[in-house]
Amino acid sequence: MLAEFLQYLFTGITIGATYALVALGFTLIYNASHVINFAQGEFLMIGGMATVSLMGMGLPMPIAIILAVILAGILGVALQRLAIAPARQASVVTLIIITIGASIFIRGVAQLVWGKEYHVMPSFGSDQPVRIGGAVMHSQSIWVLLIASILVVLLVLFFTRTLIGKAILATSMNKDAARLVGIRTQLVLMLAFMLSALIGSMAGIAVAPITFTSYDIGIMLGLKGFVAAAMGGLGSGVGAVVGGITLGIVEAMTAGYISSDYKDAVAFSMILLVLFFMPRGMFGSRVVERV
Amino acid sequence: MSALIEVTGLDKAFGGVNAVEGLSFSVNAGQVYSVIGPNGAGKTTLFNLITGIYTPTKGEIKLRGESVVGLEPNQLAERGMCRTFQNLQICMNMTALENVMLGRHLQLKSNFLSTLFRLPSMLRDEAACRERAIELMEFVGCGQYVNTEASAMSYGALKRLEIARALAADPKVILLDEPAAGLNGTETAALEDLIRKVAQQGITVVLVEHDMKLVMGISDYLLVLNYGRKLAEGTPEQIRNNPDVIAAYLGG
Amino acid sequence: MLNSLFQSRQFGLLVLALIIIVLPFGLQNDFHYDIAIQMGLIAATVVGLNLLVGFAGQISLGHAAFFGVGAYMSAILTGTYGWSPIPVLLFAAVVVGIIAFVVGRPILRLKGHYLSMATLAVGFIIYIIINNERRITGGPDGISVPSLSIFGAELNVFNDYQILGMTLSGTFLWYVLAGVLLLLAVWIAQNIIDSPIGRALRSVHGSEVAARVVGVDTARFKSLVFVISAVYASIMGSFYAHYTGFITPQIASFEHSIVLITMVVLGGMASTLGVILGVVVLKLLPQVLADFQELEMMMFGLILMLTMIFMPKGLLPTLQGLARKYLRKKPEEGV
Amino acid sequence: MSKKIFRRAGFLAATLAAGIFATSVQASDPIKIGSFLSATGPASFLGDPELKTLEMYVEKINADGGVLGRQLQLIHYDDAGDASQARNFASRLVRNDRVDIIIGGSTTGTTMSAAPLIEQARTPFISLAGAIVITEPVKPWVFKTPQSDRMAAERVLGDMQSRGITKVGLISDTGGFGSSGRTQTLEVAANYGIEILADETYGPSDTDMTAQLTRIRNAGVEAVFNFGFGQGPALVTRNYAQLGIDLPFYQSHGVASDRFLELAGTAAEGLRLPASPLLVPDSLDDADPQKAVVQNYKAEYEARWNTQVSTFGAYAYDGLMLAVMAIEQAGSTDREAVRSALENIQGYVGVTGIYNLSPEDHMGLTADSFRILEVKDGQWNLID
Q1: Between vectors from CA A183 to CA A182 and to CA A184, what angle results, nearest 5°?
Q2: Which terminus in chain D has less CB density within 10 A, N or C?
Q3: What is the pLDDT of residues A201-233, one digit of tens each?
């Protein structure tokens, strides 16, 4: 009984950690620009696919990973400069469509360059599963959790301890005021997209040994990440992490105890329930209507 | 006759900070009643509480003897209360005239079927509504903007347009939140005239305003707020001579 | 002058009717008719969605689900249970209306991205049910739908009909039907927009708080327009199902919802003729890009992205703006 | 700036118009083979090898002089796995391009949504999708080359029966392939004295199935059967090994490719599945009539595309060869003649199996055409 529960829990936490990382990417961009970036999933895809293809060229794994992350970062900056910045006046829906267009475009290019097949990426460490209390966990899952935790800590430090991090936060709160005190908001926005891309690609690389990777892996992961971010409360880092982990655990528990047919449906119902009682997600800012 | 608006023991806290605290006052029908006070005194918060945009933490608000705490703004509109905003709330996706016609929303009884098929009854109502809206635009001095997109109008014109919209609802009481803010001398003078004309029609006017000359000129009664509390109330004459008010304004 | 001509209600309807009448002279074969008919049906759906998204400013990322429920109810009730298509279509519209009302009330309190999320979730749940309940819906492999019959007369795409001494193909009659449906959809949508109800809806978009203080029960109007647009989708979903004769859960999917809202935004939010243009472009694009094979996806994404970046207001409003600038040099008076 | 946008819009409109109308120009000479496949999208690992196969063999046949002295012209559209798109492209093929025969429909959904239109246009249609509903009941103009999913289920259950297994756990994906396979398996299990004790599913893009597998393990089963395609079954296989489940494990023909072995790695060791002989061309008995055909196709495909051959491409190979055979026998592209020639083809030795079609059977394969393979030392091994 306990072993079973633990198994579902581990499964949920592993999936959830991935969702959390994607959600963090959403949060970063949302915070700086109030844009929901539907191309977020493509950063994961770029991370995984670029690493695999660079390794295929004979590069050692660590170098391949670094190059892949840099590539994703450049892509993030390009996305902001070429697609988001020129459309500053556009409405929320228009921006959504632009990022969807961007994600289709990136996927289209990836398919041309890397083909349509799924690819295997070796685990970072051993391939032996880890056993805890009768349940097993992929050893790569430990890596995923580790990387997720480190990234979260780094992000917290970045936002609370560095000037540039504080600048991003200030821009998110009031763009005009930030500009008045001398923050170059365009630079801040670029930085937010870059950071988001870096986190996304690292998440993509970390999970690739578990999930495989292909040109279209970003669609579903991106969507689930958005769900997690909204559940946690857009703009809240804690919310993104809690939202992601909760979503993962709910999915695994539903598949284990209720019905695997309806695990996604249960997850989506739960979001509706959360939003019903907390219209700004679990940790979203309680903004007072100002008129 | 009892007061039109009666507020007793009103509190509003935002995250532990009291924006309005222990406030009681009443507005009599037919008055021009002004709320003044330094920035951050809680004037706009008070308006938002009275018009149902915020819910009070504590206290009672009565409109014509009926408790209205917890009612939605649209329910208050049904009871004859309408307002304007310090930061303009104009529908920029419509023409000026449509904005004013929107104000007559409650006066239109067209049902869904007559809308779907454009039945004559609905067209008649619309024509009457349009006529009244044009009248009101002329009344507030926006007559030349009838077919202009709201987004193409000047700030001062939009301020007056908002008053026309509020009047279109045939209110018993109208709350104006800093109507003179951002207006030049001539515009302010015109506004003063307009407020007088509105009051002459028997509509109670509640005003939040910084322009002391305007306030002292047209108000029947004043309420002075400071840090969310009542500092003083009385006729313009009494307020002008109140030492606390003088201290707050000079020291603040 | 030109401005009022563009915005006059009769003008738009007239242009549309003219296009629908003239178009057959350019359609060379049944495939062209096929695409045109689908454009008509989808356009009518999108005109309804535009009431919600374009005019009332409420985002829906799950609208295809309503389209799907209408389509599937028609497929199942006429196919499996042998009911008559038109009553089923109306019944489905009522059911979808009720569903939209029940879900709409709580989720329409949400704002911005949270509303998108909630509509996405509702859409996904409906899609998952359709996909999973294989015994009823046929599951992911889809279900076939009987042809439409009106008062006992079957309208089959594949038959020929004698009407007033002329032989007309079923496809042509479907074209006429789709054209009439689209005109009707536009007429009703314009009636709604150009009325106190429409004003209230637009005020929800323009300034919700202003709408509330003048007495607009915004919650009621949001849920009203949500229901209206869902009913539009349901009815057109039913017709679409009868027309194509076979449907799969994909028509209720998130992807399809995205396609629908993209049509609205691409064509021009709050422009009834604009969103129809959006449908035409997005329906033609895959056919045109089909020749590019591998490049198709990349080009589609690029076109979508560039159009929205350079024409954030959508195709038609941007083109209208340009036309106005060309035709009238003087700036508008009274500005 | 605005001028530029105008010009661009004009160009776009012109392109749109040209794209739609240009294809209606008729050339009478070549034999037109129409095709709509899921070359991209979630079913691309079906559509992609199918398209590659069609392209290379049309080229090859044309180089060898064509059919009836006429060249073949392949007109292909990518439906990206979307049934509505498939229907529209089928419409375009029969009504606009007026093709002589259609080979395509990678999935059951795309096939079924296109079928009514093609039937009506009285154009022979050879589908490459699996579900039994495509050819049962028989539709006059619709044929298919893959074995039905029911046959796969029967082969697997038969093999389980021979090993004395009676309690089985089923896990399938919620996409068309898995969902249809699941239904068939549940329907025929009793015929083999087998009870399905657990019936779990996963979404096509799920990344972890340990929860479902844990549930199956706890149901007290003696073997597990996974019906699905794509990367899902590889993940199931990995999760299966990771959980240390030590029961016989079966996959469907949906993963019958070397790619699957790469993805699943050592976790695939010991699992069995029904597959075409294509995966084990060299283990076939020399007397086996399929041996040469299979070896040939594999060699040619791999040489041309520099990538591993897949079972799904073979469906397209057999489809094309059947089409060519029928046209040759009919002596023309007269549609009715081709159709009737198709349904009378006997003893065609294909890569997938030996086809004996008839007016009652528009597929023409038996369950025996599936071989049972087992993974040993990372290689496919012929068991039965």
Answers
A1: 110
A2: N
A3: 999 999 999 989 999 899 989 999 999 999 999
Banded pLDDT at C282 (limits 50, 70, 90): very high
Q: Cβ separation of C110 and A275 shorter than 8 Å?
A: yes
Class of domain D28-148+290-367: alpha beta
Which partners does chain B have (≥3 C-beta pairs < 8 Å)? A, C
One of 3.40.50.2300, 3.30.450.40, 3.40.50.150, 3.40.630.10 is the CATH number of D150-282+370-382, namely 3.40.50.2300
Q: What is the pLDDT of residues D56-79, one digit of tens each?
A: 999 999 999 999 989 999 999 999
Cβ–Cβ below 8 Å for C118 and A272: yes
Mean of the pLDDT values across residues D194-207?
A: 92
- Kindly list the distances between the CA atom of residue C321 and the CA atoms of A26, B116, C315, C326, in Å, as whole numbers in the listed order: 35, 30, 10, 9
Decide if C202 and B101 are in contact by the 8 Å CB cutoff.
Answer: no
Q: Tell whether C163 lies on the interface with B, counting CB pairs under 8 A.
A: no
Output the pLDDT for position D172. 95
Closest-CA residue in chain D for A130?
D242
Write down the domain spans for chain D: 28-148+290-367, 150-282+370-382
ipTM of the complex: 0.89
Chains that contact D by 3+ CB pairs under 8 Å? A, C
Please report the sign of the dihedral spanned by the C-alpha atoms of residue A245, residue A250, residue A251, residue A256. Answer: positive
User: What is the tally of structural domains in chain A?
Assistant: 1
CA distances from residue D358 to A286, B27, B149, C43, D320 in whole angstroms, order as listed: 71, 94, 73, 45, 18
* Residues A61-76, mean pLDDT to the nearest whole number: 96
Q: Which residue of D has its CA nearest to C252?
A: D84
Nearest to B148 among C210, C211, C334 (CB): C334
pTM of this structure: 0.91
Taking alpha carbons only, the member of A100, A81, A85 closest to residue A36 is A100
What is the nearest CA distance from A136 to chain D, expressed in angstroms?
A: 6
Q: Does residue D149 contact residue D177 with C-beta atoms inside 8 Å?
A: yes
- CB-nearest to A116 from D40, D211, D265 is D40
Q: Give percent above pLDDT 90 in chain B.
A: 61
- Chain Cα centroid distance, residue B84: 4
Confidence grade of residue A117 (pLDDT, cut at 50, 70, 90): confident
Q: Does residue C234 fall inside a structural domain? A: yes
Please check whether residue C65 is in contact with residue C127, taking contact to mean a CB–CB distance below 8 angstroms: yes
When pLDDT is cut at 50, 70 and 90, the band that residue D311 belongs to is confident
Number of domains composing chain C: 1
Is B125 close to C214, i.e. CB distance below 8 A? no
The residue length of chain D stands at 384
Contact C195 B145 (CB under 8 A): no
